[in-house]
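How a chain folds remains the central question behind the approach discussed here. The record that follows shows the chain in one-letter code together with its fold in token form:
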Amino acid sequence: MQNLAALSRAELIGALLAPVLPKDHPHADHVNDLESAYFGTAAVAIEASDTLLDHKLGVARELLMRDLRAQLSAGPVMNSPQALRDWLRLHCAGLQHEVFIVLFLDAQNRLLSAVEMFRGTLTQTSVYPREIVKSALERNAAAVALAHNHPSGSAEPSRADEFLTQNLKSALALVDVRVLDHFVVAGDQCASFAERGLI
């Protein structure tokens, strides 16, 4: 499958809007040539409708992720909590394993970078506070927002999640980096530690 992150916005829109004809359609080559001339990319000509749907959904997801990330970079992240939750849900959608994401923020709480730092199994991820502190210092981050997913489907934070959050908060405080929130993502749910008074 194509690396969608490497495509420009215009190429993604072209791929999303490109007509789809079966490879054996008599006009498939002609339409593909026209699309290539107009969008710079060939129209999609594939046989299986499921593959087409997966491709189109992947392109749409990439466009949404870019737009949400631009919103998060434009102003303080916590001023647009819905955009952050939407970005996290899209990032974690369909994952069958846990990931731990750190959003590094500047002094005005604007997004510097979002990094998937650790990857685990279906039920757990090993998180190393030292690596998060090191990454925060490398990026000159003033604050972080943490997130991880629960592929099991429950966004309810576990005791281990609470303990980890307190450990990370203590470790990052030693280098003057604030932990603003920790999100647990499960399907379309996104639980916030700050909203529950756990930070």
